[in-house]
Design brief:
By secondary structure, the protein is largely without helices or strands. The chain has a three-stranded parallel beta sheet, covered by helices on one side. Strand 1, helix 2 and strand 2 form a beta-alpha-beta unit. The N and C termini lie far apart (107 Å).
C-alpha cells in the first residue's frame, strides 16, 4: 500500500473547513486597536474667598469667614460662595470688603489639616 502526503487544502476541502488568512495592511503595518488607559486622579486647586470679618457665621447666609474657609479647605467642603476645597488650597480676601485695614478676631485657634496658602490683603 502506497501512502501519499495529504495537504491541509485536501483535508479542509473534504471537511468543509476554511483557513483564516492574515489580513494585509498598507505598507506592512499591523492594525492597532484603540484602548483607554486610566489617568491618575487630578484635583483642581481651589481658591476660597473670605468676605466677612466675623469669627464664625452660620452656613447659608452668604458670608464666608476665615474659619469657614479653613474648614472648607480641611474637609474639601463647599463654602457659601460655592467654592469647594480640594487638596492644597489658597485662601484670599474679598478686595471690596477688605479695601481698608480690618481685624479678624479669632476666639479659638484654627486647625490646619491640609496644605494651605493664605494670601492676605496687607502690604506684606
Amino acid at each position: 500500500m502506497r501512502r501519499f502526503p495529504i495537504s491541509w487544502t485536501t483535508i479542509s476541502t473534504q471537511l468543509g473547513l476554511k483557513r483564516k488568512r492574515k489580513q494585509r495592511h498598507q505598507h506592512g503595518e499591523r492594525s492597532r486597536r484603540p484602548r483607554f488607559e486610566p489617568l491618575e486622579a487630578r484635583h483642581m486647586l481651589a481658591v476660597l474667598v473670605v468676605n466677612s470679618t466675623a469669627n464664625n457665621t452660620p452656613l447659608g447666609d452668604g458670608y464666608v469667614t476665615l474659619r469657614e474657609a479653613v474648614a472648607a479647605a480641611n474637609g474639601n467642603t463647599t463654602t457659601d460662595l460655592g467654592h469647594t476645597g480640594s487638596g492644597a488650597d489658597t485662601i484670599t480676601f474679598d478686595p471690596l470688603v477688605f479695601d481698608s485695614q480690618k481685624t479678624i478676631t479669632l476666639e479659638t485657634q484654627l486647625a490646619l489639616n491640609s496644605s494651605l496658602t493664605i494670601d492676605g490683603p496687607g502690604a506684606g
